[in-house]
Amino acid sequence: WTLYIQQFAVNMVSLSSGLCSLCSILILSSSVCEAWNQQPMNGKEIVGSPLPRNEFSRRSTIAATIGLATQGFLAISSASAEVSDPPKSFPTSAGRRGCKTTTNPSQTVVTCIGDLQSNNADGRLSKISATENGVSTSSVKNPSRFSPPWTYLTETSDSTKAWKSLQSAVLGVDPNIQIVELTDSYLHATVPTQSPPGIGSLDDLEFILRPDDNLVLYRSASRTSVFVYPLTQPVSDSNSNLKRLQKIRTALGWEELGYAQKGSERI
Fold first, then answer.
1. β-strands 202-210, 186-192: how paired?
2. Contact 251, 172 (CB under 8 A)
């Protein structure tokens, strides 16, 4: 809560700074205009201009005021600008890598692409942090985001056949899914995020084949998390990542080696 309130306070300070800059500019410009208005009309003209000196000066002041006011509005706009590479202590991206954050006083949107298996030196799948939606066989220390491995022995003992079956099941789970990387033991697919709706992001699905153990490990996570003030956890994905995995496993007829994940009840 403390970190989240601090983040909100920083946003408000930035916005207030922009407003103060604009107000100062307008007050200064108003004083200048008033001073010009108090000068007597002497009818003298500026060389090369058909306008009297007073009229010419007033118009120049107005033009300058418009330019300065524009700078003030730009300062206000920057208060809700996009923040790239946030500090490591940024609460809404804690436990994640390769993140880009967009924030304003009402919500924060975090998109991360650095948690794929290719970024892990040990070759394992990443866990699911408390600041993202999804499930993983690697989240053994976070029961709400852990799901047990699958065994394909209910279908076959041939790992090559099981791997091909998995590829077909993945492609059949959603018409918009795409396999972006495939090896003899690793599969990475992406699919448009279903929930929260309208964020225009992707979910990553990763699978690792463990033929020596007759197992498949997996991870499904949403790249983008939405935080709405004052919530300190992301808006729920309505268990869309978990349901998609369950649909794949059901199509295969494989079994889970452990207690089934029931999903989150968060809003």
1. antiparallel
2. yes
Cα–Cα separations (whole angstroms), residue 259 to 39, 137, 262: 86, 12, 9
CB distance 221 to 204 below 8 Å: yes
Strand order in the sheet with 99-103: 82-84, 99-103, 107-112, 224-228
pTM score, whole prediction:
0.68
CA dist 263 and 43 (Å) reads 81
Measure the CA–CA gap between 247 and 249, rounded to whole angstroms: 6
Q: Burial letters for 1-40: b for 16+ Cβ neighbours within 10 Å, e otherwise?
A: eeebeebbeebeebbeebeebbeebeeebeebeeebeeee
pLDDT tens, position by position, 252-267 = 999 999 988 888 766 5
- CA end-to-end span of the chain: 18
Let me know how many helices (H) and strands (E) the chain has, helices first.
4, 11
Q: 145: exposed, middle or buried (C-beta count within 10 Å: 0-12, 13-18, 19+)?
A: buried
Rounded to 10°, the helix 240-252/159-172 angle is 130
Mean pLDDT of 224-245: 93
